[in-house]
Amino acid sequence: MQKPAKTKAPINHIIAHRWSPRAFSNKAIEEDKINALLEAARWSSSAFNEQPWRFIIGKKEEETWKKILTTLVEWNQQWAKTAPLLVLNIAKLNFTHNNKPNDVAEYDLGQAVATMALEAVHQGLFGHQMTGFDGKKAAELFNIPEGYKAVSVTAFGYYGNPDDIPADIAKQEINERSRNELKEMVFSTTFGK
Amino acid sequence: MQKPAKTKAPINHIIAHRWSPRAFSNKAIEEDKINALLEAARWSSSAFNEQPWRFIIGKKEEETWKKILTTLVEWNQQWAKTAPLLVLNIAKLNFTHNNKPNDVAEYDLGQAVATMALEAVHQGLFGHQMTGFDGKKAAELFNIPEGYKAVSVTAFGYYGNPDDIPADIAKQEINERSRNELKEMVFSTTFGK
User: pTM for the full model?
Assistant: First the structure.
């Protein structure tokens, strides 16, 4: 299932074709594709090249996968359980070189996770990020130390069958993708104009 | 000048070829390419599809470009002044639907800016993000209201001539790109392992 963005200017294929499905196929993701996802994130940019991202990856039927799933809010669990790969995305909050707060740690984590989601499209996969999860529970389950923060979870997989997820959730799969107009987010003289 | 990442797995071209140069060409960026950059950011993903990103864009010789340049720390000004396009990246800190704090506003801004930087590669351009700038001054110069935060500035352009920037900065252009090993950022059972 493809849901290419109705863009007003031609843009790169993997950017236009990225979307966030909820019905994933049971098919496992090949190891070389998982490596490509992680490698793409690794080469993302960050302030002072700090690379303030950490990932805990769980493959279906592994204990880690189950633990990540239990951190999700109930509504997300209903569909995310179809995904063969769950990744917990963690920010390192202080700079390594001076231990001072890194104000863009989460911003840079967002860059890495976005890059991973785009690489997924390149690999014929899809990713769906969630913020509806219990970060405190994740910290306990995975012994995440002070100075690190679990920010989001991404479900990855091949596209599946909407019939495999609850009907009310499956309905959202066919909604058209929408975004605000550029004039609402792009200004050229002062804020808002 | 190309500096493809020495990746350990094949990844998408625009991800592997993105890097952050400091010597930009004087050549202006075509309008359709600027639109493509913005359109790519627009279709980025965000929590609740909030799209908490705002961009103030300044083209060289425009007042906005000069104002953005003056917010940069001196060291960044020395090279960023070669860039034909400067973009101030701003996060909307509260959700629109309920006015509550959006904990992932900056994370989602990071996603949009990363996507814009990748589209730049697709367009034959490069982007270089900076956090070395005065956000308070930017807020004053552009009347950025409460509830919004200027997080970073991106310089965009075609690649230029390292001789056009100070020699000590130009030296950094030829450094090999480096990243930590995956084992330092990817775990599979518990944090750190």
Answer: 0.97
